[in-house]
Amino acid sequence: MDHETEALAAQVVSGNRRALSRAITLVESTRDDHRQKAAQLLQILTPRAGNSLRIGISGVPGAGKSTFIEAMGNLVLDRGHRLAVLAVDPSSSLSGGSILGDKTRMELLSRRREAFIRPSPTAGNLGGVARRTRESMLLCEAAGFDVIFVETVGVGQSETAVAEMTDLFLLLLLPGGGDDLQGIKRGIMELADMVLINKADGDLATAARHSAADYRSALTLIHPRTHGWRVPVLTCSALCGGGIGEVWEKIGEYRTKVTESGDFEKRRATQAKSWMWTEISEGLLAAFRQEAAVRARMEQVETEVRAGRLPPTLAAADLLGLFYNESADAKKTVKGANR
To answer: Which residues, other chains included, contact 76 with Cβ-Cβ below 8 Å and sequence gap of 6+?
Structure first.
């Protein structure tokens, strides 16, 4: 075990915020030497993780996710918890870095020492969450944070990834209903454990109540993913603070319900299995793209597919055949060298 990695792990456990930031940067790195150190770090810290409530927060553009997280976050801290916010921003197509920067959008929350905010770029990941969000959650838990918010980019068909790594999936919507209801993907609604209509203040207060009624009616046609839990639809105003306390109380009810029923542990176990297979899939894809024979042929095959001269099915079979042949030859070479 690398002594530097052991020292970093000890600093993370002690609550050193700079060490936690360095640890997350390490697990997010794609360098081979960093990946090895990250694996060692996670091996040390994983036994200390798992003792938190993981809340995924998604919502339509303009729903006020960052304002809601700041309002809810301050309430959570006032109740004696330690909060980590993994806020995921869209990646710049040029630099690969975050475009927005959530620390500037959660100014009050970022000033509190009991809170840790980590903005990370999606780096093109279709799940709407950063590539290593799961590892980052484990590191935050090992550092003593007992509530974790994961903010996603926005609502989309691929954003259901956040529900596969959190204990509660919260969907944030705008007042309106009607046409807006049609624009929400059914798959997202099926995954929601709680629906909130934000910006329920001023002239929008009445519209928010009507929207809540519309969504409650719509949810009666959808089977909730948590047995015995009726998905609540609440109104709140993150800007004014109205309804935020009621939301936290309902989250507490949900946690008690799933813990007593055993669904909490079952979901964590399912998530761990899903995480393993995701790592296998992404590892195989990375190895496929790095294979010399595949790289040499890939550009030509892509050109032929785009031009309509080669069916995608045959193109995939061609590249996979090269990959399998190269892998088989490599195994033969290793066996011959070991004799």
So the answer is: 83, 147, 248
